[in-house]
Amino acid sequence: MYAIIATGGKQYKVSEGDVIRVEKLDAEVGTSVTFDQVLAVSDKELKVAGDAAKATVTGTVMDQGKARKVIVYKYKRKTGYHKKNGHRQAYTQVKIDKINA
Fold first, then answer.
1. Please, which residues have CB within 8 angstroms of residue 24's CB and are 6 or more apart in sequence?
2. CA-wise closest residue to 43 among 3, 4, 14
């Protein structure tokens, strides 16, 4: 059984027991989170849109952290313009506990 959920502007295909990294959620480590924006659910047959609208996915927050640094380097030739910048995206690691279809 799997479900397709939307959170943080992205879509994830999840099943029970999966560990996923999503955009930062406002939740403490160890608390439970519920994803109610379920786009599709499949157990024996695929249910989409209206049929999947009643489904929810629950998970437990395992970690809050920052991803590896991405270097952003800007350069314009012949002008002496160099700009180096780094970015670390915040994430939340969630373990999927149950798919309620």
1. 8, 64, 90, 91, 92
2. 3
